[in-house]
Write a structure and sequence with these properties.
Largest sheet: 4 strands, mixed
Distance between the termini: 108 Å
Number of helices: 18
CATH class of the largest domain: Mainly Beta
Number of strands: 45
Helix content: 25-40%
Structural class: alpha+beta
Mean pLDDT: 84
CATH topology of the largest domain: Neuraminidase
Radius of gyration: 42 Å
Length: about 850
């Protein structure tokens, strides 16, 4: 035993590598050789072999039917060495008009039913090709496709068929391979060929363009596709889901309604559906059904669902759609094999592959016919020479010892080829008559014209396209078919904006990242100095940090401290009550753990003439075209490149009317410079310096875009102090300077927290750190010089401070009037306060005394502005 393997080579093989290699070979065999269709002819190998075997047997649409067993025997004996049942099942499906939109086999006998009945045994059924199958096989004998060896290398079989129809989409295909699956729905031949004809002239046509011709799948069993979103997804990406509903109509019987099902969704078993409906009615899971019966016949499907007297058909139908296969989902996966590789295709890609295949077939057919015509013309040229010299030819032949000797002498005497000389020897004496000579000349001239025509096809792309177009038009006319499946718009796919009123909302976001929207009318207007109402309930460690006023239909761009930009519609933000906490922003947009929202910018368009200006804490400014943010991904995009110690403070939209940029700092500095000092840059850039700080501890708190020097600015400090100042009072300087004083600061004011552009048609809203929001009419705020402190805008409690300000639209206060004409108001505790109306008093002034405070003027001491700037 020790010397048993002494003279043999032993190779160590890793079992893991061996299994991997073997499984890979197996999976590729399943993918390429069994389960997936070819993108060109739309057939799996077994279907292709069935049709080729029938072609070999000459079982055409005009020939007699042949036993299915005979066909299956030829297939498994010559081309497909697998079980006969699997081959027969494939043949049966090709013959089922409820499975195939255009059956390729004409079956005689029992080939199954929509009730799920199996086909009769193959010894009882007969089959032949349909006219559609003949178009799939057309020109197969003209060297139009490659042939490969069969399983035992004794015969040849086609690797693809030269189909004139886009069979893959026409009849669809389903298959499960290893690690992948295909599920392609059937389509209408008219629509498919119209789309292909469009692509002949427009090779770069998009899915949206092709959908002008191809409305969607067209199932052989009819039904109704409910909604277009899945179709659009499938044609653009290769994957989508469509909902199919049964078609029905309502009949009446006395006072009762009867639901009649005329068509069922694709691949739904009718008998099982009826059984399921009956069981649901019996178990009282669906109320209102008294009887279910099947009245279907050879003319079509008729499933009768009788309702009880008081039952409403719409309610019963909705329950049936929800609980039974009367509505089901077809998951589309446009997966096919191309160049021996599986790939998920879009609709334009599939039609392009088919069109390219047709061009290849026509070119190869043309070359085949050209070579055949040239070979025949060559022979005719030799025959013409023989006829012109017939006496000498006869003399040479008579003097020759044998055929070979005669052939050689003819070749030598008349400079003929071997083929020509042999054709002369084989020529019948009847060809010597005058009539035959004329026919020979006519045939030769026809061949010359044919050769010229075929060569023109090979030289001209336009002529090639013309032939493709002519053949497609012919096939389209021959196999015209009306659409069977209707397509209806789904209510779920109606643009949600059409169902949502466009009204102003207050969007708030807290320090810990909770966001909500509240109708602006929830906040009453108060006089300057009012205490305000609680805007949101927060935890002890949280406070409102940002808020924004926008309409529900607006697009909000969320700019974070890290320079990322996200996109969201206002109506997608959950609406809450005035005191609600809100929803975490991370549930709405994909923020990272350390990201915070710094600016929420509304826009209704992404015009190239507009730009987005970014301002950072360290004084950097950058402008980027708004159009670069028109297609935001769910995980956001990088809007600006920041230094490690820097972060975004705010961002603003600029347009052609914008003239200046202004930047405000925490220690009361402000700079104004021309907007043209900052050219537009791409998204992945750092920007330029906007302001130079006088103190290392200073930082940017806010910035704005100015369109006119007559505009007024309203900066506010932490203690609620603010003022209105004209833009022209801020000296125009160069970018990157230190600017001028924007507010005189002291312990009574605190540092600057922000500023807004004054608009007397709007109100001011201020938020404090403990969650209070107050609304102030800007008309009540007095104007003051640039180097002043201002007046009290918001009274803040001890330990509280203003954290953010913004503008909001004016809105008249809603008032309630009793039967005597007295105004009814309510306190914070809900107690009723009756106020007698005072003539000439505006309803917005009807605030209780507890909510109104006089405006102190302790901080109105103004100093000479120029002297302060000198200091």
């Amino acid at each position: 035993m020790e010397n048993l393997f002494e003279n043999q080579d032993i190779i160590d093989i890793n079992i893991e590598d061996s299994v991997k290699a073997s499984y890979l070979d197996y999976s590729m065999s399943v993918i390429i050789g069994r389960a997936l269709p070819d993108a060109r002819d739309g057939l799996k190998p077994v279907h292709r072999r069935i049709l080729y075997a029938m072609h070999d047997l000459n079982i055409t649409s005009k020939s007699a039917y042949k036993k299915s067993a005979r066909i299956v025997g030829d297939v498994i004996g010559k081309y497909h060495p697998h079980g006969d049942n699997s081959v027969y099942d494939a043949l049966v499906r090709l013959a089922q008009d409820f499975s195939m939109r255009a059956p390729l086999i004409d079956g005689q006998g029992n080939f199954g039913s929509v009730d799920g009945d199996n086909a009769a045994a193959m010894r009882y059924t007969e089959a032949r090709m349909t006219k559609v199958a003949e178009e799939v096989m057309r020109d197969l004998d003209k060297d139009t496709v490659n042939f490969t060896a069969n399983y035992d290398d004794t015969m040849k079989e086609p690797s693809v068929l030269p189909t004139r129809l886009p069979t893959l989409l026409l009849n669809g295909s389903e298959g499960i391979a290893v690690g992948m699956a295909t599920k392609i729905p059937p389509h209408n031949s008219n629509e498919l060929l119209a789309a292909v004809l469009h692509m002949v002239d427009n090779p770069e046509a998009t899915a949206d363009e092709l959908m002008q011709f191809i409305k969607g799948p067209d199932f052989p069993t009819g039904g109704t596709i409910f909604g277009r979103r899945g179709i659009i997804d499938a044609y653009n990406t290769g994957r989508g889901r469509v909902r199919i509903r049964a078609k029905h109509h309502i009949e009446t019987k006395g006072k009762k309604e009867i639901i009649i099902l005329d068509e069922l969704p694709y691949q739904v078993n009718k008998s099982r559906l009826i059984e399921q409906i009956a069981n649901l009615a019996k178990d009282k899971q669906i109320e209102g059904i008294s009887e279910v019966r099947d009245e279907s016949d050879r003319d079509g499907i008729r499933v009768v669902i009788e309702l009880k007297k008081d039952a409403m058909s719409e309610i019963v139908l909705n329950n049936l759609y929800k609980s039974t296969p009367m509505e089901n989902t077809f998951g589309i996966i446009l997966l096919a094999v191309h160049n021996k590789e599986p790939k998920v295709f879009t609709l334009p890609e599939l039609l392009t592959v088919f069109l390219s295949h047709r061009k290849t077939v026509i070119i190869r057919r043309t070359i085949f016919e050209l070579e055949k015509a040239k070979a025949r013309a060559h022979i005719l040229e030799g025959l013409k020479i023989a006829l012109d010299n017939i006496d000498e030819v006869v003399k040479i032949i008579k003097a020759s010892a044998n055929d070979a000797d005669a052939r050689e002498k003819l070749q030598e005497r008349f400079s003929l080829s071997h083929i020509q000389s042999q054709a002369i020897l084989d020529m019948r004496l009847g060809r010597l008559t005058g009539l035959q000579r004329d026919k020979l000349e006519a045939e030769y001239q026809e061949l010359l014209a044919l050769i010229e025509y075929l060569e023109l096809i090979l030289k001209s792309e336009d002529r090639l396209n013309e032939i493709i177009r002519e053949e497609l038009e012919e096939v389209k006319e021959r196999f015209a078919s009306d659409r069977r499946t209707d397509i209806e718009d789904s209510y779920d796919e109606i643009d949600i904006e059409d169902l949502i009123p466009n009204e102003p909302m207050v969007v708030t976001i807290t320090h810990n990242g909770y966001v909500k929207r509240v109708p602006i009318k929830s906040y009453e207007k108060q006089r300057r100095g009012g205490k305000g109402k609680t805007a949101v309930t927060t935890h002890d460690d949280d406070f409102i940090e940002k808020f924004f006023v926008s309409n529900t239909h607006d697009t909000l761009m969320f700019v974070t401290n890290m320079g990322q930009l996200y996109w969201l519609k206002v109506y997608k933000i959950p609406e809450g009550s005035r005191t609600a906490k809100g929803k975490a922003v991370v549930n709405l947009i994909n923020l990272r753990d350390d990201e915070k929202i710094m600016a929420i910018i509304p826009t209704s368009d992404f015009d190239e003439s507009k730009s987005l200006a970014f301002f950072t804490r360290n004084g950097v400014v950058k402008r980027t075209s708004l159009s670069e943010f028109s297609n935001i991904r769910s995980n956001g995009v990088r809007a600006i490149v920041l230094d490690d110690t820097d972060e975004i403070v705010t961002a603003k939209i600029t347009d052609p009317s914008s003239q200046f940029l202004m930047i405000f700092t925490s220690l009361g500095q402000c700079i104004r410079f021309d907007i043209e000092k900052t050219r537009e840059q791409g998204r992945s850039t750092r920007g330029v310096r906007g302001i130079k700080f006088k103190h290392d501890s200073d930082f940017v708190v806010d910035a704005d875009v100015i369109t006119d020097e007559s505009q007024e600015l309203l900066p506010i400090s932490e203690k609620g102090i603010g003022k209105r100042t004209t833009v022209s009072e801020y000296r125009l300087t160069n970018r990157a300077g230190s600017g001028v004083i924007s507010m005189k600061l002291s312990n009574k004011t605190g540092n600057v927290v922000g500023e807004v552009l004054v608009d007397e048609t709007q109100d001011l809203m201020a938020l404090t750190s403990i969650g209070k929001m107050i609304r102030v009419d800007m008309q009540t705020i007095r104007k003051a010089g640039r180097n002043t402190s201002g007046v009290i805008i918001v009274n803040v409690d001890k330990g509280d401070k203003v954290v953010s300000i913004a503008k909001c639209p004016k809105e008249a206060e809603e008032i309630e009037v009793d039967e005597n004409g007295n105004v009814i108001r309510y306190t914070e505790d809900g107690e009723v306060v009756v106020v007698e109306p005072v003539e000439g008093l505006n309803p917005v002034d009807l605030n209780t005394e507890s909510n109104v405070q006089e405006t102190p003027s302790l901080l109105d001491n103004e100093e000479n502005e120029e002297n302060n700037e000198e200091k």
